[in-house]
Write a structure and sequence with these properties.
By secondary structure, the protein is of the alpha/beta class. It has a domain of about 130 residues: Alpha/Beta hydrolase fold, catalytic domain (Rossmann fold, 3-Layer(aba) Sandwich). Helices cover about 35% and strands about 20% of the residues. It has 7 helices and 6 strands. Strands 1-3-2-4-5-6 form a 6-stranded mixed β-sheet, covered by helices on one side. Helix 1 links the parallel strand 2 and strand 3. Helix 2 packs across helix 3. It is globular.
Length: about 190
Amino acid sequence: MILHTEVVGEGEPLVFLHTGLQTGRTDFEEQQEYFSSKYQVVSPDLRGHGKSSADDLNDYYNQAADDLADTLRSMELSSAHVAGCSFGALVAIILAKSHPELVRTLTISGVTPLKPENWETLNEKESKFRMNLLKDEETCAYFDSLHEEGWQRFIHMGQDEGWYPFEATRSIQDLDMTVLFFDRGGSGT
């Protein structure tokens, strides 16, 4: 699937991958503006977000990484610097593992590399918080304005304890490209 993508600037390609329930237009706004003076800034809407509507969210991260690969190839980009946060960082990691030739450098944050021993408890707490978002009319109106129908599926996706791709995040150190990883504690690794 070719993703809806906004591009500004000229130079080496720099891809920004948005957080969950945001879009290429609404996330990394300051960074896009800053880097567009020296880079070709590429800001896609990931599968099921913004104007990249998709009915199939099964095997989400692999499909989203393949979508991104297809999109970059359709733009005739042989490789790019890729930066992502949280949800976007997870897609970036899978892209780097499944299509390493497309990723010149990888910059990620907001990722939990190893499954915490209390993952069930943490995920249950976060799931309750996310489900409560669906009860807030103002929040729903905001997300309705960003996305085509179906954004609520991402809230429900997080209900499943196995939604997080720990099998991919635990082996970031095995990647061959330069990786800058900011952990949840705020220190760069």
